[in-house]
Amino acid sequence: MRPAGWKVVLAVGAGAVGVYFLVPRLVAQDPGLVAQDLVYLSIGAASTICVLWAIRVRRPAQRGAWYLLAAGSSCFVLGDGAQEIYEQVIHTSLPFPSWADALYIAGYPFLFVGVFRITRTRGSAGSWSARVDAAMVCVGALALLWQVMMGSYARDASLSGLGKLITMAYPVMDVGLLFIVIVSMMTGSRRRTAEQLLIVALALILVGDLVYDLMVLYGSYANGNVIDALFLLNYVFVAAAAFHPSVADPYPTFKKIRAQTFWWALIAGAAFVSPVILLISGVSGIQVDVGVLAGTTIVLLALAAVRTKWLFNGLARRTSQSEERGQALHQALATQQALENDLRHQAFHDSLSGLPNRALLHDRVQHALEASPRQSGTVVLLFCDLDGFKAVNDSFGHQFGDDLLVVVGKRLVSIVRPGDTVARLGGDEFAVLLENVDNVDAATVLAQRIVSVLREPTVIDDHQIQLSASVGVAFAVAGTTTETLLSAADAAMYDAKEHGKDRYTIFQSFMRSRVIDRLMLMNAFQGSLQRREFFLEYQPQHSLADGALEGFEALVRWQHPTLGRLEPIRFIPLAEETGFIIPLGRWILEQALAEAADWVAMDGRPLSISVNLSGRQLQERNLLQDVRTALSFSGVPPARLILEITETVLVVDPEDIAEVLQQFKDMGIRIAIDDFGSGYSSLSYLRQFPVDILKIDKSFIDPLEDPDSEGAAFVQTILGLAHDLRLQVTAEGIEKQIQRDTLTRMRCHSAQGYLLSRPLSARAAEAYIAGPVGVGASSQEDRDRSTVSMPSQ
Ligand code: C2E
Ligand code: MG
Ligand code: MG
Question: Would you state the torsion angle of the CA atoms of residues 685, 687, 692, 696, taken in this order, to the nearest 10 degrees?
Fold first, then answer.
């Protein structure tokens, strides 16, 4: 590896300095001294040439400054040269002042400016304090120098005015050097190596000059003195600095080094120079220049005042900064605290209603159960689920649904005691936790109140809505855990739903098995189609005008391997939830069309076959294709197929559903709206769907037992509007003759219900078609016979 250029310069330079001192010993007297002077000159000249060369090679960041350094060195070399010319060429002793002095003194400004620019730093505003500190030291040094040497020059009568000026210029220049060295040392924690080498060079001349001046003053200097080494090494270090690669680096950023005791001592020492000199003179009678000492003291004090002012300013700035920082910190802490509180609140509260959420309820139930052994009362949990909320959401939109949930939350809060917890568990599920309940009746009274307050009509955005809720109540007993209490309230709530909704049920242990049932049923779906566990029953539909059989509605049943026959209410919602309805629905369609393919009325009229579709099936892309395949496979003409869609399904995605229905319609299939009246759609809303038949929900047919009731008027209105819209109307769930009569009078088209026939097995349906049927033709006996409904295998 090649040694770095600057190291070579240092090594060669040090060698040359060695040679300088060796020459007089090797060469005889006079020529030896001449040779020594020549070596001195050559080292200076070589240093200057090196700097110029380095500027080309190294391309320093501050080229101008390096040229100034080269110029400074040139002046010193020329000064040395001039001295040689006097002594060796003109053979006169050096006059004073001479050209050599002019050149020496001219060299310093170049040196100052060059070094000053090279050692500049970025963002150096703060370096002014370092400069003032350095100036204080320099003023002290000046006072000392004046006392030691400059004063005696000033008083030297043998010197001309110019001579005095020049003699004094040397120490003044030295003080200048001192200033630069101190400033760069005070600001120099990140100095580039090139700068460090330059500062060493300056320090060398500084010391060299001072010693030289003193030696000259006391007449003890001669050429070849060991002090020359300092000047020579100065040249060497300048050249080495110029060659150091760091010259090309950008300015370092200003960084004032921490005020060290050393610097403080130096500055304080400088301040004491003048008074100490005065003291010594006062004691010992040594002559002093009071004017100069007073002057330096004034300057020192002025600098100290400036420095103190800056110190105070800095202190005030820092205090206000730290105050600001403290305030900002305080604010940040407060924000963080608020954020944490927010997050904690969000984690444990429902964002819509602001009520505690499931997690917080869980927590509170746990605490309540832990505390209950120490209390007289017990813990009660009420689960509350709105009935038919999904339909409201689907009909009026989610915003409406959300508003309604908020109202429900508020109503619940308004009827509980202050210490009770009302939580929203998600969706339309709420819970109320009662702690320390002494009286069982208190809990059931509250459950009843919940049911009745939620039954009260609510008006939102001009819509009046009447909801109901199913409430499950669970009491904690010894050993009840949080989980068992929650699941007990849940099971009781399901029980309330199963028993007609709009009521409360108190948990009993058998109910827990229902929850397990649900899970068991979900598992039982697996492979049930392959095991042929489902079968269809067919409920006849008759014309009310002439009693003629019009067709059948296919209704699915599940012959569960262990639970036995299950009605659709037990498994259709679960099948919809799990998606099992898709393959099941496909099977129902194929089975219904296959079984009913040959069913023709006795008089040859084709009989319709109605198949129920769930909302989930309508969203399935393959539905259309499935229907086409089933139709073509069975050979049933599309005009015989009626697809029944529950009213509430229509509102979910009206555009898409209307499109699907239109495609069925185009194929010649008829569409019936099932359970009409149970949802919230209006007849005019129906107009956007290609509907053929309305099936009025059983709940509207029931009141027809009393033909003058409000319910009868309602059915009459529906029938009127349906006539206008040219829709066929089928009444569902006719059980009584009076209902049939009323409907016939109201000119309802068709009917379906236990009065006419219960759903029949496929075989029984075939017998039914062949049998003597007609409205009113079947006796009670016939009807009872027709309920025999076994799976058709
Ligand atoms: P739905 O489509 O409205 O079917 C009519 C329901 O009312 C049938 O109950 C039927 O047995 C019953 N019903 C008929 N006449 C009377 C009567 O006079 N009195 C009483 N109390 N009930 C009567 P089911 O078979 O239990 O079906 C219940 C619901 O399950 C159906 O209501 C339908 O929404 C759904 N469902 C049944 N089969 C299927 C199916 O194959 N696919 C789909 N997606 N849903 C089905
Ligand atoms: Mg139906
Ligand atoms: Mg129905």
Answer: 30
